[in-house]
Amino acid sequence: MSAVLEIRDAEVSFNVPGGRIRAVDGVSLTLNEGETLAVVGESGCGKTTLAKAILGLEPLSAGAIEVQGLSVTPDLRGLAKRVGIVWQDPYASLDPRWRIGRSIAEPLIVNGQRLDGRVDEVMRQVGLDLTMKERFPHQLSGGQRQRVAVARALALGPPLVLCDEPTAALDLSIRAQILNLLKDLQSKLSCSYLYISHDLTTVRFIADRVAVMYLGRFVEVGETEKVFAEPRHPYTRALLESSPTLETIGRLPAVLPGEIPDPREVAVGCPFKTRCPNKLEICETVFPDPSEDGGRVFYCHNPVSAPSP
Ligand SMILES: Nc1ncnc2c1ncn2[C@@H]1O[C@H](COP(=O)(O)OP(=O)(O)OP(=O)(O)O)[C@@H](O)[C@H]1O
Ligand SMILES: [Mg+2]
Questions:
Q1: What is the pLDDT of residue 265?
Q2: What is the set of domains in the chain, with CATH numbers?
């Protein structure tokens, strides 16, 4: 299996009033062909910033990102052919003044590709009736608009597609349709997904592996079923445990116990130390080394115990 996406110690920092924050802090990952990796974590943990860095929209302050072995830099041409993106709000990627057909054709035109029958082909792939071509975004339903956004993302046939909360703005009933569509497309096109979501139910359905992010860092990465069934990091466990009621099922809560620390403060020790029920003295000062457990990696001095075999 070859890697579609390779991230090594990536860091993105921002100057903000009163200091500097590392929105992405030493993130590493490898995404293989045809694989789906979900990134989950509370609001502000750095998920969108990571996606922007992969698209070359946010420069790295350290580390490296490669798509199919090609280094991502802010001025890289040709990245659009390698990476597609579906944002949460399809309005963000669709010009309201353009007919749907033009919106889907635009990435092809900008990248000097022949249109031929490509617009029709990709519309069929995402299940859009060809008569939609003449419509404007506001004349479509939310689900149809998101199908257009997926069509745009796939137009150039990228091996990697980033999905940033692609179903969060949709009704529950439509959500499943879009998820099934993404899954079908993946098996047909064998593209890889980096799937960002708050919705743990969705993640369980679509992702082969999951990366749990906290304050810019990955704290646990592993096979979805394993991580969900036996979380080893206390933060992963807290996320899973805090979604018990019917209304909140599978969704990240607005707040876990304890406060997220001010990201402007220089990070010393474990980022989760201020909220962690398992905290030890060493957590105050030393960032934990990675531990491995059957292919899963987590960063914790005092992890949740593994179930006895
Ligand atoms: N352009 C920017 N300038 C300054 N700070 C920024 C900028 N973009 C993001 N940040 C900060 O970086 C951190 C990570 O933000 P990011 O949008 O990546 O989080 P997120 O995980 O996508 O959150 P959400 O789930 O709400 O979408 C936050 O503290 C945010 O305030
Ligand atoms: Mg975001």
A1: 66
A2: 3-82+158-261 (3.40.50.300)
